[in-house]
Design goal:
By secondary structure, the protein is of the alpha/beta class. It has helices at residues 40-58, 74-83, 87-104, 120-132, 192-196, 212-224, 238-253, 284-289, 294-302, 316-336, 342-360, 365-384, 390-407, 418-436, 440-452; strands at residues 5-8, 13-16, 24-29, 62-67, 136-138, 144-146, 184-189, 208-210, 230-234, 261-264, 267-269, 272-273, 310-312, 455-460, 463-468. The protein contains 15 helices and 15 strands. It binds one RNA strand of 75 nucleotides through α1, α7, β12, β13 and α10.
Amino acid sequence: MPEFRLYNTMSRSVEPFAPADGETVRLYTCGPTVYNPAHLGNFRTFLFEDLLRRALRLRGWKVEQVMNLTDVDDKIIKRASEQGKSIREVTDPVVTIFHEDRKYLRIEDAEHYPRATAYIAEMIQLVERLIANGVAYLADDGSVYFAIGKFPAYGRLSRLDTREIQSGARVAQDDYSKENAQDFALWKAAKPEDEACGAAWDSPWGRGRPGWHLECSAMAMSILGETLDLHAGGIDLVFPHHEDEIAQSEAATGKPFARCWSHGEFLLTDGAKMAKRVGNVQNVADLRANGVSGAAVRHFVYSTHYRKQLNLAGEALEGSMEAVRRVADFAERLKDARGGTRGLEDAADHLENEVRNALFDDLNAPGAVAALFDFIRAANKELDAGGSDAGALSRAREVFAMVDGIFELVPDRVNADAAFAQWVEQQLEERKQARARRDFAAADAIRKGLEEKGVVIEDSAVGTKWKAR
RNA sequence: GGCGCCGUGGCCAAGUGGUAAGGCGGCAGACUGCAAAUCUGCUAUUCGUCGGUUCGAUUCCGACCGGCGCCUCCA
């Protein structure tokens, strides 16, 4: 089994990776803030993490993944206030949509999806530890802050040592009375609007709510233990989110918070970061409306390395839709095949090796996908040649299933309703008869009629197949 | 201003100190009654520009041009 190598943001280099106990990778991934459906940029990160967990399993490890759902934060409170709802009323529907979207993109279930509001007690305990350790303080405004000056390692992950506000940097908006502008809130004193929407809890420091960073540390350590094997997220979380997670976790436990940090790059739209503020977001609902399958999105995302910005532009998505059609046709063909050849078996062996090597080399998805397409061409060629080797065929099916079990590029079959399918079959029968009497004009007219209904047909020696397009 | 990333064919995009993966598209051919699917061949003498190191650089170094991201809302 080749060594698994992964880029570690902490060291800024590709390093060998293995879980501490040699068996189970304890993986924490920062999830969505559920005030609005996640957009494709968010999902690029979740797709990266999906591939990561599948690759780790391919390597032979178990994976225990936590993806948190941030269900209390400024934006949620703002929305709840505007709509006269509780935060729960705002977040519940969005959580439902998140999971639907996630399934559409075939992102596997993580083992845990903790909601921040379910871990308030753990967060309070963590803050108490930090206060006891002298690295957190209660300010005049009733909020508790982390004193970054008390944590010498602060800034190691992001390598942002100079914290002065420079020209060009965004200016911090100070809503709270901190001792140091760079200190971050662990616990925020409740404001009237927080109380109004159910975003306030009792604490030793009075009514309040958790700061954003606190939830991840509390949930990660509660569920996975004080030292994670791997912590992943979007590149923008490096600073301040992950920096602050490290500070508050390590200052509390005295142990390393994560053994490895992995960050996925952004999705751009026509060259600009996809973001609400830019106004260029697309979400899964938009894709569905345009007939873009989850499989096509996966192909698109996995065509670029996770540490490189990916530009949603040009005909890229259309290309992925077509590419995935090719994979689906091949899958069908492999399923229906009656036998294989020695060459088919060799191609399968080669594919398995290539995929392992690529994926274990810092998650080189493009390389693995390229190997898959090489295999499809080679296998189509072998299948064209016929062959009756049952062992070779089953080997090809096995490896293809393994690879597609990782990338999931075969789109869901659109199940035409029964009446429509019956109508299509009837048309095909009529066309068959027309062809039998060599009335090709009639046969072509039927085919044209089917195409107008979105049905593509393929004649072959064993009959005519059709598929909805 | 600080930190970092990127610039490869029409589009998306791998990769390596030794002469360019893969997908989409296009062109031609095989197969087909015609298609579709599939297969075959062709489609970057070249990897932003200019220098340098080297026997040799797209790959290393420097400068420049262009694009992007982070510097407490951020996947």
